[in-house]
């Protein structure tokens, strides 16, 4: 999952980082690169705590959505890529029914886009999580 991060600086050297999609997730660094590296560690720590307490790992919003928030005025935006799979719990094997042509399309997509879809199961899980996030966001709007 790509988490957008907002970087702020007062002196052009030291940066603070906010991860808007994870409440209370902040970091800092003596350079942009160090700030992003530290943000990655902060995100991993927060996700580990969420998993430990059985809390849901929320989806990441777009930068465009966050730009409208005045708290992020003047921010430089970046992304931190995190594999959230380890924080979703133990995998369970299930039996589902999918129309054959849909399955063929899924398998073709996974094969042609190995960086976006590691496997059929990962693709279906990520698609379901994304759909639920969009419906939740729509209901809250």
How would you describe what is shown here?
The chain is of the alpha+beta class and 141 residues long. Helix content is 43%, strand content 15%. The protein is built from 4 helices and 4 strands, in the order E-E-E-H-H-E-H-H. The protein has helices at residues 32-52, 63-67, 100-112, 120-140, and strands at 2-8, 15-18, 26-29, 76-81. It has a 4-stranded antiparallel β-sheet, with helices on one face. A hairpin with a 7-residue loop joins strand 2 and strand 3 (26-29). The longest helix is centred in the N-terminal third of the chain and has 21 residues, at 32-52. It is elongated and about 60 Å long.
Write the layout of secondary structure elements.
Blueprint: E1 2-8, E2 15-18, E3 26-29, H1 32-52, H2 63-67, E4 76-81, H3 100-112, H4 120-140
Antiparallel strand pairs: 1-2, 1-4, 2-3
Mean pLDDT: 90
Shape: elongated
* Strand and helix order: EEEHHEHH
What share of residues is helical? 40-55%
| SS content category | alpha+beta
Strand order of the largest sheet: 3-2-1-4
Instruction: Count the E strands.
Output: 4
C-alpha termini separation: 23 Å
Strand content: 5-15%
Uncertain spans? none
Largest sheet descriptor: 4 strands, antiparallel
Compute the CA-based radius of gyration: 18 Å
Number of helices: 4
